[in-house]
């Protein structure tokens, strides 16, 4: 027998039944759905991660669409149940969708939405914060103060790394990786080396132009280099930030061998997905190299950390909060809701999922389009002419 789940219902007489597996920030997303004849059911169960069984219970016999979370396992079982209940739409409230079996969704004719763009700057800002916290040992120093250990200024107290003039390395120079690179280059005048499967032309142009600007002001210009391998970045960079998607090609991209070629005093930041780093190998590396430091937002077995990580003074760890600004989280909820609504209403696909601002303007109605559907092509969804 299915476990009962607690829900909050909005617009009980709405024609389309849309479920959100979690309460999400803001109310605009709820209003956008209820205004379009949706009955919205929000799961309020006091359980952080819902199981497949919990979600099956939520879907029930009739469900038009679901907004889900990155902690949930959206595979064959859930997509077949959603399709059987008449559902044609699912959206993750996240840009990453490695928790979703997109092929299974496509097989059952279910569109899979995600929330790109709205979280780019917020996530890059957290990666920049972790870079600073790790390089200047902010968390260690804060703990020291609170423990009452500070008894006066000392030449050697919490000496860290200067960023200015050093090299920032970016693995995965997509939306977030490029935004992070710009922050570190503009903010700290670092030189860039990056590795991506594609050329980051706009980023390269930005660094060239900024370098010229600095030079014209009598300052040392910043430089950029596109590496031909990830290893080149690991060897040369002083601060390395990981921003690829998680897939078969990026699983354990950072492992014992790749850690071994990094500088002994390098800083490594991960705001992508935990399994991009072999965390067991990382803990060993942190133990053997006390001057090597990391800033981690994501972990291999979330919500857990691999044994030993919590004791490492040279690690700054935060609980997957990179996109956690109010504006961004409300925007993510809006995009996820509009993906589901758009598919239910038969709207076309938004032509540029990298430019989602028109959906986020609170003062005007959103475009009649699905902001971002990752399996649009196999489902034969056409792009909007708007
Ligand atoms: N920590 C968080 O809260 C948080 C927030 C947002 C996004 N993310 C993660 O960040 C990822 C990136 O988001 P985005 O919006 O920048 O996506 P994006 O698609 O714009 O960028 C990803 C980049 O990775 C590159 N890439 C793919 N495989 C690669 C490989 N093997 N080696 C090097 N580069 C490779 C792609 O070419 C692309 O440029 C998401 O998929 C998500 O997992 C995490
Ligand atoms: O992929 C994402 O969007 C994050 O992990 C949560 O913002």
Automatic annotation (TrEMBL):
<protein>
    <recommendedName>
        <fullName>glycerate dehydrogenase</fullName>
        <ecNumber>1.1.1.29</ecNumber>
    </recommendedName>
</protein>
<comment type="similarity">
    <text>Belongs to the D-isomer specific 2-hydroxyacid dehydrogenase family.</text>
</comment>
<keyword id="KW-0323">Glycolate pathway</keyword>
<dbReference type="GO" id="GO:0030267">
    <property type="term" value="F:glyoxylate reductase (NADPH) activity"/>
</dbReference>
<dbReference type="Pfam" id="PF00389">
    <property type="entry name" value="2-Hacid_dh"/>
</dbReference>
<dbReference type="Pfam" id="PF02826">
    <property type="entry name" value="2-Hacid_dh_C"/>
</dbReference>
<dbReference type="InterPro" id="IPR006139">
    <property type="entry name" value="D-isomer_2_OHA_DH_cat_dom"/>
</dbReference>
<dbReference type="InterPro" id="IPR036291">
    <property type="entry name" value="NAD(P)-bd_dom_sf"/>
</dbReference>
<comment type="pathway">
    <text>Photosynthesis; photorespiration; 3-phospho-D-glycerate from glycine: step 3/4.</text>
</comment>
<keyword id="KW-0520">NAD</keyword>
<keyword id="KW-0576">Peroxisome</keyword>
<dbReference type="GO" id="GO:0051287">
    <property type="term" value="F:NAD binding"/>
</dbReference>
<dbReference type="GO" id="GO:0008465">
    <property type="term" value="F:hydroxypyruvate reductase (NADH) activity"/>
</dbReference>
<keyword id="KW-0560">Oxidoreductase</keyword>
<dbReference type="GO" id="GO:0005777">
    <property type="term" value="C:peroxisome"/>
</dbReference>
<feature type="domain" description="D-isomer specific 2-hydroxyacid dehydrogenase NAD-binding">
    <location>
        <begin position="130"/>
        <end position="322"/>
    </location>
</feature>
<dbReference type="GO" id="GO:0005829">
    <property type="term" value="C:cytosol"/>
</dbReference>
<dbReference type="InterPro" id="IPR029752">
    <property type="entry name" value="D-isomer_DH_CS1"/>
</dbReference>
<dbReference type="InterPro" id="IPR006140">
    <property type="entry name" value="D-isomer_DH_NAD-bd"/>
</dbReference>
<dbReference type="GO" id="GO:0009854">
    <property type="term" value="P:oxidative photosynthetic carbon pathway"/>
</dbReference>
<dbReference type="InterPro" id="IPR050223">
    <property type="entry name" value="D-isomer_2-hydroxyacid_DH"/>
</dbReference>
<feature type="domain" description="D-isomer specific 2-hydroxyacid dehydrogenase catalytic">
    <location>
        <begin position="29"/>
        <end position="348"/>
    </location>
</feature>
